[in-house]
């Protein structure tokens, strides 16, 4: 079960990575999980998973563009 506190923690970890921190740790399923710049996409997926479970909109994909 996900909580808004878990979402806040994950979003803060993502922000820390985006501003240059090399490694961040968050609590996930009762254990500490570390994310780095190389695993930032996994953290984004986790954030989307929490947002979906909480009934919040997840990240939106950019427009696909037009093909002729």
Fold and architecture overview:
By secondary structure, the protein is an alpha+beta fold. The protein has a single domain, classed as Head-to-tail joining protein W, gpW (2-Layer Sandwich), CATH 3.30.1580. The protein contains two helices and two strands. The chain has a two-stranded antiparallel sheet with strand order 1-2. The model has no long low-confidence stretch (mean pLDDT 89).
Oligomer: single chain
**Helix and strand pattern:** HEEH
Shape: globular
If you consult CATH, what is the topology? Head-to-tail joining protein W, gpW
By CATH, the architecture is named 2-Layer Sandwich
CATH superfamily membership: Head-to-tail joining protein W
Gyration radius, rounded: 14 Å
